[in-house]
Specification:
alpha+beta; Metallo-beta-lactamase, Chain A; 5-stranded mixed beta sheet; 20% helix; globular; binds zinc ion
């Protein structure tokens, strides 16, 4: 059993990297340095693949501490991640947790031995905050704090390519119900912040599903957040894993397509509104 990695070029400097499972990663390559964004579930030798494929000195940044984004990091000595998500990363890093998550996408995950799974990070977390700007040579990457999905989640603006990497911060089904999420009210502030930056990006890239969304995604999520706060959303009950949650706008659960044709939607808990 071997884990295969692949990539596709998205813009002048951005490559999307695929490994095992549904969460993609990105590599941003400048003239002098690179930046690996996320490490997915941490199965297989991602480091070897990145170094053979891109062949530039690089840093590693993690958008947020969830198991499907952060678990490959023990292949490096130092990684950037917002310190607010460190405990979250540690709490979701067991191999059994990752196997359970992967099972939905990789039916034969049990055939992959434990040795292929990266273990708990023993290196140093460097704080990723809005002052941590990466100049890669011909392309700069600016991180912005975007709390909601987790407390420490960051989006990355790839300035010269006019692209914003949203990660899980704002999606077609933004999840706002786990213990680590912020309230809808705090998330509304984040959406207003992303909206205020809209003249700086023309494309939104994400890490799940189609991995890209139209620019209307932010305004649509904002509209939905306002509806939840006003109590005027569709408020559709749903059970996800052990959570009893609500979907703000009626949609097809398989495709996440909203009945009214718009894209942005929020899944939330009644205890996490204000
Ligand atoms: Zn996440």
């Amino acid at each position: 059993m071997e884990v295969k990695f692949t990539n596709e070029k998205i813009t002048d400097h951005i490559y999307r990297v695929y490994g095992l499972g549904d969460a993609c990663m990105y590599f941003i390559k400048g003239n002098e340095r690179g930046l690996l964004v996320d490490t997915a579930y941490g199965v297989g030798d991602l480091r070897k693949y990145i170094e053979e494929t891109f062949a530039v000195p690089y840093d590693v940044v993690i958008t947020h501490g969830h198991a499907d984004h952060a678990n490959g990091i023990n292949q490096w000595d130092k990684v950037y991640m917002n310190h607010l998500d460190i405990e979250l990363y540690k709490s979701r890093s067991e191999i059994s947790t990752r196997r359970t998550l992967l099972k939905k996408r990789v039916e034969n995950i049990d055939e992959y031995p434990d040795e292929l799974f990266q273990t708990l990070f023993e290196g140093e977390f460097l704080d990723l905050n809005e002052d941590t700007i990466f100049d890669l040579g011909g392309v700069r990457v600016e991180p912005y704090h975007a709390p909601g999905h987790t407390q420490g989640i960051m989006v990355l603006l790839v300035v010269e390519d006019r692209v914003c990497l949203f990660g899980d911060a704002c999606g077609v089904m933004t999840f706002l119900f786990r213990p680590e999420t912020s309230t809808v009210s705090v998330y509304r502030d984040t959406l207003n912040k992303l909206l205020a930056m809209k003249d700086r990006y023309d494309r939104i890239l994400r890490q799940h599903g189609t991995c890209e969304s139209p620019l209307s995604l932010v305004e649509e999520n904002l509209e939905v957040a306002e509806e939840i706060l006003n109590g005027t959303d569709d408020h559709v009950p749903w059970e996800f894993q052990e959570f009893k949650v609500f979907i703000a706008k009626k949609c097809d659960l398989k495709t996440a397509q909203r009945e009214d044709g718009k894209s942005g939607n929020i899944v939330y808990s009644e205890t996490k509104i204000r």
